[in-house]
Amino acid sequence: QVQLVESGGGLVQAGGSLRLSCAASGGTFRRFTMAWFRRAPGKDRDFVAGMDGNVNDTRYADSVAGRFTISRDNAKNTVDLQMNNLKPEDTANYYCAATLYWLSFPTEEGLYNHWGQGTQVTVSS
What we know:
Blueprint: E1 3-7, E2 10-13, E3 18-25, E4 33-39, E5 45-51, E6 58-60, E7 68-73, E8 78-83, E9 92-99, E10 114-115, E11 119-124
Parallel strand pairs: 2-11
Antiparallel strand pairs: 1-3, 3-8, 4-5, 4-9, 5-6, 7-8, 9-10, 9-11
């Protein structure tokens, strides 16, 4: 039973930075592709960034590319999201997700079957 716990959310001014962390337990961490999704009010839960556990390929949503960096520590079973130059449009509940799917790089919500509880990020203008 895979469990994911996010931390690091909070309130930050536009232009500031936050680092989110996700601690995983209950599975073989390196087998999973890990990702961050976010849900803003009135919007679907959308892919933000992902990283596989084999060759460390990464993917980013166009809206965050160049500002956010995903990383993972397979020895500690953690995945982080460094968020720089935050914008008010980044305000959302951020979720950590995991999947064993590997036929292609998974960026769709439906391909992930393990989810954390979410951590709120609020960016003020």
